[in-house]
Amino acid sequence: xxxxxxxxxxxxxxxxxxxxxxxxxxxxxxxxxxxxxxxxxxxxxxxxxxxxxxxxxxxxxxxxxxxxxxxxxxxxxxxxxxxxxxxxxxxxxxxxxxxxxxxxxxxxxxxxxxxxxxxxxxxxxxxxxxxxxxxxxxxxxxxxxxxxxxxxxxxxxxxxxxxxxxxxxxxxxxxxxxxxxxxxxxxxxxxxxxxxxxxxxxxxxxxxxxxxxxxxxxxxxxxxxx
Length: 226
Description:
It is a single chain. The protein has helices at 16-30, 58-90, 103-111, 132-142, 171-184, 210-217, and strands at residues 5-9, 33-40, 94-100, 116-120, 147-150, 162-167, 189-194, 223-225. With 226 residues, it is an alpha/beta fold. The protein has a 5-stranded parallel β-sheet with strand order 3-2-1-4-5, sandwiched between helices. A 3-stranded parallel β-sheet has the order 6-7-8, covered by helices on one side. The longest helix is centred in the first third of the chain and has 33 residues, at 58-90. The chain is elongated. It starts with a strand and ends with a strand.
């Protein structure tokens, strides 16, 4: 499978620029269309401080939500400008999508129409993206597409050079390995780690990780079974 379109999560979090760096590098390397997705989820705004919603404070809450929406749109406009400039600078084909809706459902829906979704890990110290871990879990189960989750700590300009495959011989692992092939096709080294191996036809075989290692080697990868 070749990668022809990549979806990248763009937000106001501190890790977003680094995530965009990685996504643009992947898009450039694969000649892929890059989609910048910015999601504004008004439902994640809590009514903290308003107490029980009644006729007296419902107006205050509505006004608060309007201000939050306006502020979010201003931030999104800045993010869009940065994203479009990055496309121009790197000579990439792409598009910007600003969507208001439930984060998990929105990201999951848009991810279904891309070969790869580049999303960020939640930073516990960044309140601007609080609650994102739950969103990632739902997207993983609902999108049906491979997700590349970028850690919030560190800066990553490339992916797939030195690869560790956690292998348990189950359907999910087989699917993950297959989806990852376009990302690891130029890996310098691949190590397959058999997790709690069980022998036999329904398990890891006579030699744990040997069969999946041979499969990967046929794709031209240098593989070590551990």
